[in-house]
């Protein structure tokens, strides 16, 4: 599949903002998602953005899309210890075949 | 709605054994997919289906077969298990693209498979 790159680890203090980044190569991607996975659990959809949008805000979550640079980011405001998990960006232009990054492990320390 | 269900949750096989991982959804979704998740590799697409009777290969199809005889069910078959197939397997479903309308992929809880 097309390359989707994420940094592997991020550590932040509780109350700070977290920014998780994702870069991709397939410019035809129509739907771009952020999933959260807690240890031993399945994937939970956090938020999504369409390719014709630049930004989407949903409570503590802000997604930014820079199509020119093929860069997607997820900002979590006021990060809590319960936000510690692995975060995956995923892209598709088909609706049935998601191309996932390898995931960013977020550790929130008190 | 139960959403996407997968059975079993855990399975241990010996090399060469065969088995079927079950996946079912009750949301009348057209699209269904199988992914495997390996440490440090993210999720990779094995097979997918865009409707009953239609299946196709994803990124890592070797060693796996699928069929889609009904809208609800999408079983994944391992014909002769190998240690390289030790992984966590996720099934997903979605209702299909419709312009720019929201199209979420719903994931099952996963099956953790170990091949000795």
What does this structure look like?
The complex is a heterodimer of chains A (110) and B (116). With 110 residues, chain A is mostly beta strands. Chain A is built from no helices and eleven strands. In chain A, strands 2, 4, 5, 9, 10 and 11 form a six-stranded mixed sheet that branches. In chain A, strands 1-3-8-7-6 form a five-stranded antiparallel sheet, with no helix packed on it. Chain B is globular and about 40 Å long. With 116 residues, chain B is an all-beta fold. Chain B starts with a strand and ends with a strand. Chain A binds chain B through residues 1, 4, 8, 30-31, 33, 35, 41-43, 45, 48, 50, 52, 88, 90, 94-103, and chain B through 31-33, 35, 40-45, 48-50, 58-59, 90, 92, 94, 96-97, 100, 102-110.
Q: Strand fraction band of chain B?
A: over 45%
What is the average of the pLDDT values of chain B?
92
Extended strand count of chain A: 11
Rg of chain B, nearest Å = 14 Å
Gap between N and C termini of chain B: 36 Å
Class based on secondary structure composition and strand pairing of chain B? mainly beta
Order of helices and strands of chain A: EEEEEEEEEEE
The DSSP helix count of chain B reads 0
Based on Cα principal axes, name the global outline of chain A: globular
Strand content of chain A: over 45%
Model regions low in confidence, pLDDT < 50 over at least 5 residues of chain B = none
Structural class of chain A: mainly beta
Q: Could you give the order of the helices and strands of chain B?
A: EEEEEEEEEEE
Largest interface: A-B, 26 and 30 residues
Estimated helix fraction of chain A: under 10%
Uncertain stretches of 5 or more adjacent residues of chain A:
none
Largest sheet report of chain A: 6 strands, mixed
Radius of gyration of chain A, Cα only, in angstroms? 13 Å
